[in-house]
Amino acid sequence: MERLKWFEEARYGLFIHWGLYAELGGEWAGVHYPGGTEWIMRTARIPFETYRKLALSFNPLSFDAEDWVKKALGFGCRYLCFTAKHHDGFAMFDTAVSDYSIVHTPFGRDVVKELSDACRRHGLKFCVYYSQMQDWADPDGDGNTWDYDPKKKDFRRYFENKVKPQVRELLSNYGEIGMIWFDTPYDMPRELCAELAAFVHSLQPDCVINGRIGYGLGDYRQMGDNEIPMLAYRGAWETPMTLNNTWGYSKTDQNWKTPKKVMKMLIDVASKGGNLLINVGPDANGVIPAGSVRALDAVGSWLQKYGKSIYGTEPCADFPYQMRWGGMTGRGKKVYLHLLDVSEIHGRLKICNIETKATSCRLLSTGEELPFRQTYELARDEYRFIVEYPTDRLDDMDTVIAVEFEEAPVPHSLYMTFGRDGRTEI
Ligand code: H79
Predict the structure, then answer these.
(1) Domain range holding 341?
(2) Cα(167) to centroid of ligand 1, in Å?
(3) pLDDT tens digits, one per residue of 379-403
(4) Is 54 within 8 Å of 105 (Cβ atoms)?
């Protein structure tokens, strides 16, 4: 699908969760609440009239859209998705719908405007997250059971009075929006989801809609939060992933994934044809935590060198054996072998079941040719592809070997048997 082209090539995006909850950082009235800090209004059952006072002190003087966008580019991300409105209902943009927005804080600036402008200046796709079902500030929105009587709730009214006008604002006032990222559709009726999807495309036909619009109405499949599928999935998909254990800023959580872990996830996701949307949660001053920046900068440096093996790649065939040494990504005839853990292979990488003939094998970093051979053992009907790599020039993060085949390789695996009784099921 034309609209998805940029998305499928991007493979790596930056998610930014930022809102009033950043002021609390996971703590309320001296108590630390576990789980996503952006959920604190609900997990601590904070009354709306109390929570909204956070707007009176929201003044992130260090916020600099230019800096965030430059960081995102340095991380190697190809799109940026910003929480324009999360479940707490607070708009991080100028809205005519209510005064519960960032322009009615001491800060008074439209963050969506500044970010969208900076993204455009730097050629980064700008996307917005919008919580369409849950809205804890609105008696007719979903999720706030401690302030409002669910029996009096009229979701259609909320949909007409807040969701549609705000989606219209987001898709009218900020230029081209790459994608609108909906969340938690729960039991929203299909007709309303379909109406919302059509509404988005009536305003911006090229705007991608993520899977959490519900009912398969989105342009791609959204995997669960922090969930990576086992096998290659046909069709575009994306996994949103936290870098620590929360989406919003936390005062205490320093459990950052290592750069290598993020990179492995990115390789894994890319090999299965998906995108990784890695998250950061800036603090109340508008600063992206140093721990996040350190980790993602290291991934970015790796991508600077090896980005070819990630961006624009396609799903690889599901090869029948585990690749304990790493994994593979590729596009058509080109395959990139990622040597992530060479502790078991010592200079000789063997892959079974590739029957397709290879024409060249090189180190991606230097272009140096590597010796390889392909063998076949008749009685076992087993093909082997063997490449010798230099053990003295390994990259600590990942040594990438670029192999070119005569055609896109597919696994030769029909001899394998499946099922308890050993009968072939395929
Ligand atoms: O925006 C991020 C999350 O806030 C949102 N999706 C990502 C992208 C999300 N909405 N719902 N959920 C995630 C699942 C909710 C899990 C919960 Fe909990 C378990 C809510 C209450 C219990 C986690 C733990 C959040 C608060 C405590």
Answers:
(1) 326-405
(2) 22
(3) 888 899 999 999 999 999 999 999 9
(4) no
